[in-house]
Write a structure and sequence with these properties.
By secondary structure, the protein is of the alpha+beta class. It contains 9 helices and 18 strands. The strands form 4 sheets. It has a 7-stranded mixed β-sheet, with helices on both faces. Strand 12, helix 5 and strand 13 form a beta-alpha-beta unit. The protein binds S-adenosylmethionine (SAM). The site of S-adenosylmethionine has 23 residues, from helix 5, strand 13 and helix 7.
């Protein structure tokens, strides 16, 4: 790792550690609440990533050494929101959500058993979810870069799906940045974020619009820029930020910049503005990739 990055890791590095908690959706809670005493069923306590045998024993449902009180299960079955995820902590169900005045309301949103969750910040979901699941959306973004190899910068971690898919597609390491501490806590309990534990992924907690100035020049082989919409994070669409993205990339490296559907995340001139600023920053071969809803651009070879 380059010295500029090491210094950032010392000051802003936050090791991702997965927190394995039993997770319930309303659907799963209803299935378990209907179990007769002594009966067993195969179900999931990680939203469908894996399945386990769960047995009702009196006022508990047990899976191996784990036991969940029926009271907790029934509370989710009766009063839970179908789009929420509930973690059982100290025998109580708690919605996987957090609020602070500074960071707003963040929650993990359930999309169905076996479907990777999305993240909602102040009611806005951070992944494409219509006709596509969030993992597939992340795959399309990474594929737009061609082969992801070498060091990849992932500007906006969120649930880490783009970082994880970059590793899967051949990146040797990924540096990913997240400004919102509530998002990092939520990602820690999300089963689909677990691969962020990889020692090849470095997580920095901070504002990428500031941290990028401390990143070394010509360092990354590729960058994925997957910011919130422009009305929320204008600085991540600015000429200054694009110049920095250009600077930290190696000659010949590619950028994927998610923008969302034309006309949906900004006015009609929004995409034109993004393209113009990328061009002024020095990027070439700027191309709209419809299936990934973003631009691919390259830093010219020296
Ligand atoms: C669209 S989501 C990213 C989704 C992510 N790539 C994934 O695959 O899960 C945008 C994320 O960027 C974060 N964010 C917003 N402004 C930021 C900034 N200035 N620096 C770093 N992260 C930021 C938000 O908190 C949010 O989690």
């Amino acid at each position: 790792m380059g010295s500029g990055i090491e210094s950032l890791v010392k000051r802003f590095g936050c090791k991702y550690r997965y927190r394995a908690l039993p997770l319930l959706s309303v659907d799963t809670a209803r299935e378990l609440a209907a179990l007769e005493d002594g009966a067993c069923t195969e179900s999931s306590l990680d939203l469908g990533m894996s399945r386990v045998e769960l047995c009702r024993r009196g006022s508990y449902v047990e899976a191996g050494s784990l036991s969940i009180p029926m009271d907790a299960i029934e509370a989710v079955a009766r009063g839970g929101k179908s789009s929420s995820v509930y973690a059982i902590i100290d025998s109580e169900p708690r919605e996987v959500a957090a609020y602070s005045d500074e960071w707003g309301f963040c929650r993990l949103r359930y999309l169905g058993l076996g479907i990777p969750t999305t993240l909602e910040i102040n009611g806005i979901h951070m992944h494409r979810i219509e006709g596509i699941d969030p993992y597939r959306g992340a795959e399309l973004k990474i594929r737009s870069l061609g082969r992801a190899r070498g060091r990849v910068l992932d500007t906006c971690m969120g649930l880490g799906y783009t970082a994880i898919k970059a590793l899967e597609r051949g990146a040797s390491s990924v540096v990913t940045v997240e400004v919102n501490p509530l998002v990092i806590e939520i990602a820690r309990v999300n089963p689909w974020s677990r691969a962020l534990e990889s020692p090849r992924i470095t997580t920095l907690r901070g504002d990428v619009a500031k941290l990028i100035y401390e990143m070394p020049s010509s360092y990354f082989d590729a960058a994925i820029h997957d910011p919130p919409r422009i009305s929320i994070a204008g600085e991540l669409y600015s000429q200054e930020f694009y110049r920095e993205l250009y600077r930290v990339l190696k000659p010949g490296a590619r950028l994927f910049h998610y923008t969302g559907e034309p006309g949906r995340h900004g006015g009609p001139s929004y995409l034109k503005g993004v393209r113009n600023r990328l061009e002024r920053a020095g990027f070439v071969a700027i191309r709209w990739v419809g299936r990934a809803l973003g631009f691919v651009a390259a830093k010219p070879r020296a």
